[in-house]
Amino acid sequence: MEENPRGWIHGDETAKAMLSRILTERPFLFLPPLHRVPLRVGNVVEIAGPSPSAKSQILLHAAVNCILPEEWKGIRFGGLGRMVMYFDLDCRFDVLRLSQILKHRIMEAYRSTNNTYWKEKGEHQKNDAPTTHMYLCDDELFLDCMRRFLYIRCYNSFEFLAALKAMHSHSQRESEALGVSVHFLMIDSIGAFYWMDRACQPMPIGGSKRKNVSLQSLAEAVVQEICKLLQMQPVLVLATKATIFGAGTSGNDAQRLAHDVNLPILRSTSSTRAFGKWCSEGKMDSRTSSREGEKLMYREYMPSSWQSFVTHRVHLQALDEIISGGEYGTLLTYASQWVQPPLNIKDKFAIRDDGIFLIT
């Protein structure tokens, strides 16, 4: 439905009109660990953690929830039926994993509906015809969902900038063709080109009158392009970021931070090696609940323009604990904690093909 821009600017909105506008779309229920904070379009969420800490897995499960329809031929899937723009910057996107999660969710919904159907009809009436019909629908629904997943792979910051500039017109064409809008802008991972850009010396483009290209200017350009995209097409931004910690900390920083939190430093010929060894041997509990311990572990490396652009931050961490997942075998466990806004709650969770679930 088209709106009158002049009326929107000059006229106040009534409460009834506001509610009718806001309630036209149902809220998206996030999977753990993103469920603790109310998120909406326009927010920029940074999911930070070492590798591996399930950052990409969270993006994939959120993407599947988004591209699945709410209902398909009378079967409820509970998805949004919206599009996802997925930027793969570290070039490690696993399309087989996405396909596996999506197919499992589809078959799980069919299986649940089939079991409910035969409970109502009685087991003595059971035959293979309805089940065969349901399984024939899988490919059609699978392809319909995958059309709503827009995948873009970039190999450097300039390709990323070019893709962002072209994304609005591209997504607009896809939206018109599919009849749905984009809900998620996913970036995996935002710091993938940091070291490459940092190693390159600032250089002028197109002559000496043009300003130099530097790490800071590239980050500012990325933020500006995402801002333009958000203004033209409001979406929720989810960006993963690998953390730098442990052996990546310099010797001086290690001694200073350890002194600040009153922790010992192992002495050796190399402060950096000693600090890495100290962390790897478990002298520091990586799952400590103290804020000081977390400051020691994680170092911010993204430019200030990106840091100020982010509205929400959550840190992830892999745990040593392994649990039994029944038919899924053993499952790795992870921990999450919100940094912005700060929450004094740490969630433990595990990941299966059918979703992400909390461990109590």
From TrEMBL:
<dbReference type="GO" id="GO:0005524">
    <property type="term" value="F:ATP binding"/>
</dbReference>
<feature type="domain" description="RecA family profile 1">
    <location>
        <begin position="19"/>
        <end position="244"/>
    </location>
</feature>
<dbReference type="GO" id="GO:0140664">
    <property type="term" value="F:ATP-dependent DNA damage sensor activity"/>
</dbReference>
<dbReference type="GO" id="GO:0033063">
    <property type="term" value="C:Rad51B-Rad51C-Rad51D-XRCC2 complex"/>
</dbReference>
<dbReference type="InterPro" id="IPR020588">
    <property type="entry name" value="RecA_ATP-bd"/>
</dbReference>
<dbReference type="InterPro" id="IPR027417">
    <property type="entry name" value="P-loop_NTPase"/>
</dbReference>
<dbReference type="GO" id="GO:0005657">
    <property type="term" value="C:replication fork"/>
</dbReference>
<dbReference type="GO" id="GO:0003677">
    <property type="term" value="F:DNA binding"/>
</dbReference>
<dbReference type="GO" id="GO:0000724">
    <property type="term" value="P:double-strand break repair via homologous recombination"/>
</dbReference>
<protein>
    <submittedName>
        <fullName>DNA repair protein XRCC2 homolog isoform X1</fullName>
    </submittedName>
</protein>
<dbReference type="InterPro" id="IPR030547">
    <property type="entry name" value="XRCC2"/>
</dbReference>
